[in-house]
Amino acid sequence: MAGTSLSPVMAPTAQAEDGYDLWLRYAQADAPRSAAISAHATAIVAPGTGPTLTIATQELQRAIAGMSGTTPALSATFQQGALLLATPASTPALPVTTDGLGSEGYAIRSTMIDGKAVTLIAANSDVGLLQGTYNWLRLAQSGESLDNLDIRSAPKIGLRLLNHWDNLNGTVERGYAGQSIWDWWRLPDWKGPRYADYARANASIGINGTVLNNVNAKADSLTASYIAKAAALADVFRPYGIKVYLSVKWTAPMELDGLKTADPLDPQVAAWWKAKADEIYKAIPDFGGFLVKANSEGQPGPQDYNRTHADGANMLAAAVKPHNGIVMWRAFVYAHDNPDDRAKQAYTDFKPLDGKFADNVIVQVKNGAIDFQPREPFHPLFGAMPKTPLMMEFQITKEYLGQSTHLTYLGPLFEETLDADTYARGKGSTVSKVIDGSLEGHKLTGIAGVANIGMDRDWSGSIFNQADWYAFGRLAWDTSLSADSIAKEWAEMTFSPDPKLVQPVVKMMMGSREAAVDYMTPLGLAHVMDTGHHYGPGPWVSDLARPEWNPVYYHKADANGIGFDRTKSGSDAVGQYAPPVAKLLASAKTTPENELLWFHHLPWDYRLKSGDTLWDGLIHHYDGGVRYVTDMQTTWASLKPYVDAERFAETEAFLTIQHREALWWRDASIAYFQSVSKRPLPAGSAAPAHDLDWYKALKFPYAPGHN
Ligand code: BDP
């Protein structure tokens, strides 16, 4: 077994399967696959030894050694079966064109050079070669053929970022995988090995930027000492093609330097930000830019000075513009003094600002109009601001989807939103086309995922949560991929390419998010989680200071029926969608049933498509969700022979937790809604295990992720 140059931290066979290696395990392949890999990687020819190329060639050596037992040598000359990395600069007569691949894309082609059969990975840059390398390794790991390759791939979305909601004290807002991986205290002097492993994992799925700190930002992140710490991380990430960004607090000029105001139109304020940007770029020449949460949930912002979000964003944009930086301005806003439907407020605030943002501002919009619920209709801002680049914000961490222990694969959630049709420019105006810029011809494009990464040995709090990080990256690179195919390649790399394992695992993953919708928020219900920590059910909560913090605000259940009327007779949030969408949503009959109660308040006797009354159907969804979890437990138990003991046991235990909690969700929800509807349960549905007061009395003061 070769591989003396391997990092001891991630050596493929050096340790038990604790999940640290993610999908980059490079475990020994079976004989045919091992032989195929060796035959297609007899040597590696690379155009130089720069830091990025060194990462690529070492990754290849490590991976090939792990999978086949032989380490290919770095070679200057072609030989039969060599893997050749090349750019037009290194190899002028490349047999493939790199036109259209941009600065990150690549081509992989099985070809003949000097009479020798080789595999060529070609790109315009070393980062492109690294991306091509990871694609080739994905094929090798997942047991795909390495013959006759002819692949071209380039991302349509420019900014593919993680957003860390990490605090400077090491906690992570909505983090369920342990403490923050940023050791702010010992940076910049100590750069632990985990930083490079983090960059490597992200690069392997095409992520090219990371916002280091919480959107609920502290001004301190912009002090000289914290800029130096961010610069140290940027130095580690750079060769992987990953840029660093910072969340900023609006009042930083006042807090750090005693300015009297943070009014964006005040010249002193603008000068402060300009000087701050200059200082940051001196330390981090390729700094990406700022992410801003302003005038939302108590954060300060330009509206405090009677200025608009555009005034604020443009002032910051001017500060970073000379350095090619950008500003990502979040549209997640709702205000305590606005009595309108919370689902409408972002649109109301931002739509009038369309066309008013500087050209290096991109508005970051959550997938739905409330807050990362198990299911939300797509945000009405997508398609509604044609003159403004909009970027997607997904939540990879599962604040509302079972947190660390539930197996609820998010691929289908991401896919559902990306494929949703806004009808902004007629049929086919999907959310994907809004955010990849193709619908309106925008060049600045982006997608962000709120990270699920922490100090846990397995990074994400569970093995299956790794799939959400993976799926986010893969979809960010190529929104046309299916959640199903991503689950398949993830399972092949994370466990093994054996179809006896892969097929059941993928099947279980693919239905798991819908199961969580069923046992938590069926038929379009939302935001019925308990207060603050959002762990577990609290549909009865009605005593919080702001109306829209209370679950009762969202479900509006009473003796007659349930649901939020967002049609013309109600809040008319439906009117924020393009006319063809609005028309469908105007009637319960034409609204997709899985969004029914999001848009309509309906009587308990309303007939669902199944023939069930709404009441019976609701109960059947709760039952179905729990049943799905039972089925996952059975499936997983049958996979014991195919999974290592450590990862098997963890998943088995977490499924036990999930089953218990799915039942809790079902029982507590039914106990509450039955206290309102006063209806009997349909035949075959068991009564909740406890009475309503028992569920109401449960308290979780130490639930993780909540400050
Ligand atoms: C909500 C979270 C809260 C975040 C907020 C945001 O509960 O912790 O600060 O979103 O996105 O999902 O700003």
Mind explaining what this structure looks like?
The structure is a single chain. With 707 residues, this protein is α/β, with parallel strands linked by helices. The chain folds into three domains: 31-153, Chitobiase/beta-hexosaminidase domain 2-like (Chitobiase, domain 2), CATH 3.30.379; 160-494, Alpha-Beta Barrel (TIM Barrel), CATH 3.20.20.80; 518-564 and 601-696, Alpha-Beta Complex (Alpha-d-glucuronidase, C-terminal Domain), CATH 3.90.1330. It is 36% helix and 10% strand. It is built from 20 helices and 16 strands. The strands form three sheets. The chain has an eight-stranded parallel barrel with strand order 7-8-9-10-11-12-13-14. A six-stranded mixed sheet has the order 2-1-3-5-4-6. It has a two-stranded antiparallel ribbon with strand order 15-16. Mean pLDDT is 96; it is low at 1-14. Bound molecules: beta-D-glucopyranuronic acid. The site of beta-D-glucopyranuronic acid has 10 residues, from loops.
